[in-house]
Amino acid sequence: MGYIEDLKDKRQGAGRLRYRVRYRDPAGRERAKSFARKVDAERFLRHVEADLVRGQWVDPRQGQTTVGELAERWFATTATLKPKTREDYRSLLHNHILPAFGNRAVASLDTLAVRAWLAGLVSRGLSP
Fold first, then answer.
1. pLDDT confidence of 92, banded at 50, 70, 90?
2. What is the dihedral angle through the alpha carbons of 72, 76, 82, 86, rounded to the nearest 10 degrees?
3. The dihedral of CA 72, 78, 79, 81: what is its sign?
4. Contact between 21 and 35 (Cβ < 8 Å)
5. d(CA 99, CA 59)
6. Residue 120 pLDDT > 80, yes or no?
7. Distance in angstroms (rounded) separating the CA atoms of residues 79 and 101
8. Which helix (H) or strand (E) holds 6?
9. How many whole angstroms separate alpha carbon 23 and alpha carbon 45?
10. Cα gap 32→3, rounded to integer Å
């Protein structure tokens, strides 16, 4: 699937990254990331290939999108729902989700953060 390119024969300055991992994303676009150590490049390539096989690969740039941006994009897809349902969803977003996670990058969220947030809702008498 991917490969590691050794850049030692290329014109490199002192302290430059020496190994480049090249792979193709699910859309067929070639991606690359460089590393100073071969072991780091190998570890990254194994991780990327495993994610691609499992269908769990995520574009690194998409992980920088904030939860607020993603929530607005999602909300725009609810146009076919009944007005009351959309109103309820908007209320949940504004009162609970966006205050807690709105400015956070999607990639920064983990299971523990979401579970802690849910525990906070339950402790205030709300249902998860």
1. very high
2. 10
3. negative
4. yes
5. 26
6. yes
7. 23
8. strand 3-6
9. 8
10. 10
Amino acid letter, 79: A
The answer on pLDDT for 109 being more than 80 is: yes
Tokens matching residue 126: 């709300």
Asked if 78 and 86 touch (Cβ cutoff 8 Å), the reply is: yes
Return the number of other C-beta atoms located less than 10 Å from residue 35's C-beta. 19
Residue type, position 38, single letter: K
For residue 27 the two structure tokens come to 């859309």
- Across the range 46-67, mean pLDDT stands at 87
The string of DSSP letters for 50-90 reads HHHHHT----TTGGGSBHHHHHHHHHHTTTTS-HHHHHHHH
Looking at residue 37, the DSSP 8-state letter turns out to be S
Q: What's the distance, Cα to Cα, between the start and end of the chain in Å?
A: 41
* % helix, strand, coil for the chain, step of 5: 50, 15, 35
Q: Is the pTM of this model over 0.70?
A: no
